[in-house]
Amino acid sequence: MLKILLKKLLSKSASKWLILSIDLVILSISYFFAHIIRFNLTIDYFIKTMIMQLFVVIIIGAFSFWIVGTNKSTIRHTGDRDVLNIVYSIALYSTILLLAVNLNNKYILPFFDLNLISKLFDIPNSIILLHFFISIIVLVYSRFLFRTIYLAATSDRVIIHPILIFGAGEAGIITYNALTKDTKYNYDVVAFIDDNTNKVGKKINGIPILATTKITKAYIDGNNIKEVIISTNNIGSSRLIEITDQFLDFDIKIKTIPALSNWIDEGLSMSQIKDINIDDLLDRDVIDINNPIVKKEVENKIVMVTGAAGSIGSELCRQLINYPISKLILIDNSESSLYNLEQDLHLSGHSNFVAIVSDIRDKKNMQKLFSKLTPQKVYHAAAYKHVPLMEISPYEAVCVNILGTKNIADCSVEFGVQSFVMVSTDKAVNPTNVMGATKRAAEMYISYLSENKNNTKFTITRFGNVLGSNGSVIPLFKKQINQGGPLSLTHPEITRFFMTIPEACSLVLEAGTMGKGGEIYIFDMGNSIKIFDLAKRMIALSGLNYPNDIEIEIIGLRPGEKLHEELLANGENSQETHHDKILIAKNNSINFLKIKNIINTYLNEIEDLTNLKIVELLKLMVPEFISNNSKFEKLDDKK
Known about the structure:
The protein has 639 residues and is α/β, with parallel strands linked by helices. 47% of the residues lie in helices and 14% in strands.
């Protein structure tokens, strides 16, 4: 029965009048104790005088509580703001009472000494001051007492393992408050952790603040800690990695709070505290490219995206569709993926687009599409990108990455497209594989067209691996972890650059607005990541332990694979732009006549060429192409 009553009293739907009544009772009792403390009064005085004055106390108190709104709070969620509201309401009450008493002393009491009104307001200033402090203390204490009783009597919460909070600042305290207010789980915060020596050794709500050096495996095991929440605002990825790595060997779950802007208005809730994401540990800060010129460039324009259903292409479409474009044309030869993108855009409320299944290798069909749809901006993201697959399929790599790019670029010139932006890759830099070499050859052909001074502005963008793209290492590791391992790694020292797909697409859109044409834009992608370390972090973040729970298997470099990727080729240098994270690669001199002749050979004879001959021509076209761990290394020996 007590449990039911408390739930009703302290629930969100508890009557405002009930809460107001309880506050007025407490205010009246506090008034009585103020007199006891001040005068050690007899019961006779209390009966004769105080009962009359309590009428005034209740009227003014009710008015003050109602104006401030203390009766509108949810008692079981009492917090700092509720305490402030109590202080404000009692301050208002005391001010009104003080004014009434002093007006009474000055204008009423001297002339009507026995008048009822004068007795009602015949209250010493010392009593009002005492009542001010007593009522605040008792009202605040009662709020927290009711909350504690409610949690104890009505708790259906599941008791979970002890946890730590990293960060004893404002964010850490807000996290602690969110934990204690959670109605589903009973969190046991063992300690706060902080690097600030001024905070270490102190306590928050009786919970100690410890230095990071105190958090050892013995401490974790001794307190049975299974979870740590990182609660620090504006933390850089480098620092986040340091903190995370500290706990990797402890078999402990690591969580984090969202950015301040995501919860500051409505407060932090437990649903927002999430497992730390591998995206947070890429040792690079997110770069926000926000250029209003992009809007101006695509406004009321017909925009085409090739490879629209791919990782980069689909995100380009999702970003472009939110600009005031005239129409978006989606081109891809993957029917199912294109259908899924089409449905996503429809569900998002967009209709100013058309999805077309087509192959960029089919020049005649591309010419028909350009003639009919008249695109003004082209973002060319269609390409084959998987290194090992293209190493055994040079024919497909050349047909799509070189000849397909040529088709789209030529159509752009033929049909008066204003700008053409090509999505390239860091694997085109000093390529060691067929895929990278074909992308470099495509770059060279785009540079050739740009040199011809036609009316289309050609731009190339280069960047590294994107998180979550089809076939990238992170989705592969996640799948292998779910299957119980082992994680397959080609080499213990292999490193890669990473960026998010939205960032990559922001760069592509930004690049389309910059320069005069012919530039290759590269992106400052931060530090490269050692994939072995990335694998260990992903294992730990999955709640497993390396190597006890899951192993990492070294399988050797795949055909054409590099140990370390690059963003600039040998002999290239970079030039700054107005954006500090975007650079221009200064191109090496290119033999355009050789490029034209080899491409013509591909166009006329590729169906009759062997893979060896296809790659031999590719090496002539891209002199810096030196095969690695590939059967085509013998062609380099001939050089």
